[in-house]
Structures
1.
Amino acid sequence: MKIFAFANQKGGVGKTTTAITLAHQFAIDGFRTLLVDLDPQGHVAICLGLEKGPGLYRLLGQDESLQEVVLPARSNLDILTSDKSTEKVKRLFTLANFSEKTLHHLLSKSTYDVIFIDMAPSLDVLHLSGLLASDWVIIPTRLDALAIDGVKEIALTMAELSRRGHPFFGYSILPTFFERTTRESFLQLEELTRVFGSHVLPPIPQDTRVREAPAYGKTLMEYAPHCTALLGIHANDHRIGGYIQVFTRLKEMVNE
């Protein structure tokens, strides 16, 4: 089993869409998949056409088992929901005798093939718990200077946790909202690649269907299976970027 956290301390970078899209693609491919929502906004459930709920609080605050609190979302895909009660979980970690590794212990005992953790855009005790529960961190980022600064902050946090002994397998950076007609997108993609090299995943093209799909409670595969965000941009007889290409890379990590 591999556990992936999707993290960036800056919001609006496509983090939740990325976690949902890749989780559903793994489920379609036959992997038993769990998607964990650590954000009190509860957008994971809403984007899948379900009600947000206190799943995370029931797991960590009321000692219910993981099997009792997850909800089936799609074939092979379960979710652990969040809502405002997730704020209580933060207080439990802060005030009670909770270890920041508690989430890791609970998830690592499960029988899922792959787990995806959608993190809130903040640096607090629950964010650290999500990082400490993960094997691999995926950092979605817009291609602008401020968003890239958020990538550096996550990388620094991971480095500190590694020094404390957490055995990350590694991290990958996912450029989102890539606009092939915009000079800044190319310049920032070049800068990301210069600084982070092979850590940079294929970019996700800008696509209005990404914004539309959650309104219908559907994933991209259900709403627009031929969209450029999934399949990439066709250029010079090959495809550039897209979630399917990223899925292929993550599948290789899972099967290592």
2.
Amino acid sequence: MAHPLVICLAGAGSRSGRPLDVFRTVLTYLKVAGAYSADDFVEGSYRIADTGEPLHYDAIDSTASLADVTSNVARCLQWFRRTSGRRLYLLGWSLGGVALFDALAGLSDFDSTWAQAAPALVTLASPLLGSDLDGIDALGAVAAGHVGADLTRRAADATEKRRVRQDAARLRGAGVRLVTLAAEDDAVVTPEDALLPASGPDPAAFILRPKRQVGATYLENVLGHGALPHDPACWRHVLTALGPAE
């Protein structure tokens, strides 16, 4: 059986190349402990061709409106499914997790086979329930783009947050392994913003306490956003959620 294809997506303000850099240590762990190979990992994209094929993207593409971001990512997933013939495992950090979650939920509304096509989704520090974007002065235009405004509105909209929780329950009910991870000291995306606990005995939402990295960026070292992918506990949760490659 072919290995699954792990699709990685980074956050607002990112550009092509950033997803594999963000998840570099996570992917190394998956190769060592989960028997994945380098060609099992690909980047999603916020910019696509007419066919849905992922294209090179820049910061302007990853700070478009949440509707545009989600639409492009959904079509990108459709392209990967159509052209690879492999199961798709989804791995998103920050906005990347929101885009993958919303895209998969929308695709599943129209085609129930998506739960089998993309049976695992892990989000890291993703504002699934919106965010009031603490630290916006430090993030500047990255946080203040169209998608930042949309996520701020989501955080203030009880109906929208209820819809997100219902989508999560529906995906899990269809068989998708949805795991959400948050960092305790993240000032940009708090655990309250990021976690979608599951009903039942199996835990699916985790608060971790990653150590700050020497020489890390202000976003990571002071605001605590971006530290999760460097945490060995995070690596283990990702592997548990995705499972070994074969």
